[in-house]
From TrEMBL:
UniProt keyword annotations, A-Z: Membrane, Transmembrane, Transmembrane helix
Record flagged with keyword Transmembrane: yes
TM ranges: 39-57, 177-198, 204-222
Superkingdom of the source species: Bacteria
Organism lineage: Bacteria, Pseudomonadati, Pseudomonadota, Alphaproteobacteria, Hyphomicrobiales
Short name of one Pfam family: Bestrophin-like
Protein name: DUF4239 domain-containing protein
Organism: Rhizobium leguminosarum bv. trifolii WSM597
Amino acid sequence: MLGGLVFVFLSAATATGMIVRGRLPDHHLSSESKDAIRLATAVVGTLSALALGLLIASAKSTYDNAEVEMRTAAARVLLLDRVMAQYGPETDKARHLLRELIQKRLSRGWSAETTDDASGSALGEYQDIEAVQGDLRSLSPRDSVQRSLQTRALDVSGMVAETHWLLVESGKEGLPWAFLAVLVCWLSLLFATFGLQAPANPTVLSILLVCALSVAGAIFLISDMANPYVGLIRVSDAPLQSAIERLGKP
């Protein structure tokens, strides 16, 4: 969606430049005037390239962090299940709740908008992990080994809950929209100057449209990677799929 809008803006800017070109007096487009335009737009072009590079780096960092969070969460869930399995059959209910939590996560997605929403009789995810923690606290260890396992299980479940709340708190960060808006304005100015100076023939028009499409594609990639749990470029849920196959085993 965002990439398409950027493509429309850049194409419109190019067309505007070509329309203005046909209405300007000849001396406005003399070689000296074109040199001055190129020098001025070089500054904007450099700034645009830097801004686009920063946005790409930021989006890639967000995507990589989300991928690490997914693997870490799956590993912690598996660790919690194994610790509870070592405790004994008293944790069967808590292990079942943990498996239901992962099944819900797979069916509803991994985003702040879905994990806390109640759906029919299904509770929000934070309530599920709190129920697991409640069952763990209600255990009555018979010896020091079970007491140690209970403490460890509570620690790991706390880390699972922490991962959830970190997702909730960071879920609305997204792209720096003001920065992106300024970047699109700079790019539109550049493409308007391209249209102002370029002759209106099919070859030039094709190249300009391909360039506009390339820039719009870069913006699309940035917006998609900045929201790593939705869209075309999303973090794989393979770690969770692998985890759920191992949950509940003796």
